[in-house]
Amino acid sequence: MYQKIGQWFLFSYCNMYNMSQVEKSNEYYVIEQKCQNLLKESEIRFAGLINPMGNLVAGGMKKGLKPLEDDADMRKLYMELILRVSTRQEFDESLGVVNYSASRREKAVLLSFPIGNKVLLISADANVNIDETAKKVKKIAGI
């Protein structure tokens, strides 16, 4: 019985996030756990993995916080992020690989960490120390 419920949950979860067959693997449950661990940090508002199609496939907003963007704008942000990261990879040979990128805005700091062809996106409080937060994210996420 529990196995059927687990299979149903896996099917529902994967369909809800438009995940491909490859993304339905155990890897994404591990990433989901890492995102949840990141969200336990007081300064982190959002931790999510974005796939090459611009879909959020793991993680999300910290419970109890209101997103600064609506769903449509978040989708645009994900698409722009994937495009930006893939464009930066064109310079990996000459400049070296990107460890992370950060943008300090008035209301939040956004950090992106390329992981293969996906991106770990972090939104943190505007007053964070970017380098310290990036080190913390890399340690918790194991990247």
Topology record:
Blueprint: H1 2-16, H2 26-39, E1 44-50, E2 56-61, H3 71-88, H4 92-95, E3 101-104, E4 109-115, E5 118-124, H5 130-141
Antiparallel strand pairs: 1-2, 1-5, 3-4, 4-5
* Count of DSSP strands: 5
Structural class: alpha+beta
The average pLDDT score comes to: 82
Strand composition percent: 15-25%
* SS field, number of helical segments: 5
CATH architecture: 2-Layer Sandwich
**Dominant shape:** globular
Distance between the termini: 37 Å
Query: Taking strands numbered 1, 2, ... along the chain, how are they ordered across the largest sheet?
Result: 2-1-5-4-3
N-to-C order of helices and strands = HHEEHHEEEH
Unreliable stretches covering 5 or more consecutive residues: 1-17
The largest sheet is: 5 strands, antiparallel
CATH superfamily: Dynein light chain 2a, cytoplasmic
Estimate percent helicity: 40-55%
What value does the Rg take, in angstroms?
15 Å
What is the CATH topology assignment?
Beta-Lactamase
Domain count: the total is 1
* CATH structural class: Alpha Beta
What tags apply to this protein structure?
single chain, 143 residues, alpha+beta, Beta-Lactamase, five-stranded antiparallel β-sheet, 5 helices, globular, disordered N terminus
Describe the overall structure.
- The structure is a single chain.
- By secondary structure, the protein is an alpha+beta fold.
- The chain has one domain (26-141): Dynein light chain 2a, cytoplasmic (Beta-Lactamase, 2-Layer Sandwich), CATH 3.30.450.
- 44% of the residues lie in helices and 22% in strands.
- It has helices at residues 2-16, 26-39, 71-88, 92-95, 130-141, and strands at 44-50, 56-61, 101-104, 109-115, 118-124.
- Strands 2-1-5-4-3 form a five-stranded antiparallel β-sheet, sandwiched between helices.
- Strand 3 (101-104) and strand 4 (109-115) form a beta hairpin.
- The N and C termini lie far apart (37 Å).
